[in-house]
């Protein structure tokens, strides 16, 4: 069995009825449970995960690198989220 979470995500979306799968990455990622304490949440879990995915695709290899990438591209994300 693969340790990649991608297989789990693919299986999840395969179980949804036709037309129920989200069209945007952020909408798909918003369906995952948010383990954070609600008192400190400033951004929805889908938004945070989508930014991390985009940073990783752009070459970020750590959370700090993803943070740096996200701060450099914040203006590009604002309209889409």
Largest sheet: none
Helix fraction, binned, reads 40-55%
Global shape: globular
Strand content: under 5%
Please state the CA-atom Rg, rounded to the nearest Å.
Answer: 14 Å
How do the SSEs run, as a string of H and E? HHHHH
Q: Provide the low-confidence segments as ranges.
A: none
Mean pLDDT: 80
**Helix run count:** 5
List the domain count as a whole number: 1
Walk me through what this model shows:
The chain is mainly α. The chain has one domain. 52% of the residues lie in helices and 0% in strands. The chain has helices at residues 5-14, 25-29, 45-57, 63-72, 74-77. Helix 3 (45-57) packs across helix 4.
Present the secondary structure layout.
Layout (H helix, E strand, L loop, with lengths): L4 H10 L10 H5 L15 H13 L5 H10 L1 H4 L4
């Amino acid at each position: 069995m693969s340790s990649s979470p991608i297989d789990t995500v693919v299986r999840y979306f395969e179980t949804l009825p036709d037309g129920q799968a989200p069209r945007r990455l952020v909408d798909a990622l918003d369906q995952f449970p948010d383990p954070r304490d609600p008192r400190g949440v400033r951004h929805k879990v889908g938004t945070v995960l989508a930014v991390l995915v985009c940073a990783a695709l752009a070459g970020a290899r750590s959370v700090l690198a993803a943070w740096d990438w996200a701060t450099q591209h914040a203006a590009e994300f604002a309209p889409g989220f």
